[in-house]
Design brief:
Helix 6 packs antiparallel against helix 7. The chain is of the alpha+beta class. Strands 1-2-3-4-6-5 form a 6-stranded antiparallel sheet. It folds into 2 domains: about 110 residues, Alpha-Beta Complex (Aspartate Aminotransferase, domain 1); about 60 residues, no CATH class.
C-alpha cells in the first residue's frame, strides 16, 4: 500500500523544504557568518544579527532583525507583531516563484549596511503610571512607607501600580494593598521572590 503522507507534510519545515533550501542558498552567498541561535540559523555581520529565515503554517519567511531601517523599495516588509516587535521586519512568501534572488540580495546587503552604521531602535522612554488613590493615601498616612516606596526603582513602583490597577473589585484592591504594604516597607519589588539573584 502506498504511503501518501508525503503529499501532506506535517511540519512547516517539511512543507516548505524546497523553498527554504533556495532561500538559504541565497543568504549563504552574502558576506555573513552563519550561527545557530534559538534553534535556527541566524546570519550575522560582526557578531550582530542581520537575517534569518523559516517556515510557518501558511507561508515561509525571511526576517531582518533591524528591518525597521530598511528602505523597502518593494513594500514587502511587515511587522509580524504590531506593538510588540520594534525593529524586526518579515518578508513572507507562499511559493518558490516569489523568490527573486536579486531583490532578496539587495535587501540583505542594505541590512548589512544598517549594521555597519550601527543603527539601533531606541527603547521608548519609561512613562510613570498615575498612582491609584488608595496607594497614595497609604503612603501619605505612613512617612516610613512613603520613604521606602521612594527608594524603589521606577520599574518596581510600576509593578505595584499595575498590580493594584488590574484588580476590578474594590475588595480585591484592598486585599492587594494589604499584601503589598509589608513588601514595600521591606524594600522589595512585587516579583522579587520569583527573580533569581
Amino acid at each position: 500500500m502506498e504511503n501518501t503522507s508525503t503529499n501532506s507534510p506535517h511540519t512547516p519545515a517539511e512543507r516548505w523544504q524546497k523553498e527554504l533550501v533556495v532561500l538559504s542558498s541565497i543568504i549563504r552567498k552574502m558576506p555573513l557568518e552563519k550561527t545557530i541561535k534559538w534553534g535556527s540559523e541566524v546570519f550575522t555581520w560582526n557578531g550582530k544579527n542581520v537575517v534569518s529565515y523559516g517556515g510557518f503554517k501558511n507561508y515561509f519567511a525571511l526576517w531582518f532583525y533591524n528591518g525597521v531601517f530598511l528602505s523597502d523599495p518593494n513594500k514587502v516588509l511587515i511587522n509580524a507583531q504590531e506593538g510588540v516587535t520594534r525593529s524586526l521586519r518579515q518578508w513572507r512568501f507562499q511559493s518558490l516563484e516569489e523568490l527573486d534572488e536579486v531583490s532578496i540580495s539587495e535587501y540583505i546587503l542594505e541590512a548589512i549596511e544598517v549594521e555597519k552604521k550601527g543603527l539601533k531602535h531606541k527603547p521608548e522612554r519609561f512613562k510613570p503610571l498615575p498612582m491609584p488613590q488608595m496607594l497614595a493615601e497609604a503612603l501619605s498616612n505612613d512617612p516610613g512607607l512613603q520613604e521606602a516606596y521612594g527608594k524603589l526603582s521606577p520599574g518596581k513602583q510600576k509593578e505595584y501600580i499595575q498590580y493594584l490597577n488590574e484588580a476590578r473589585q474594590e475588595t480585591t484592591k484592598h486585599k492587594r494593598l494589604e499584601k503589598i504594604v509589608p513588601m514595600i516597607a521591606a524594600g522589595m519589588g512585587l516579583n522579587d521572590r520569583y527573580k533569581k539573584s
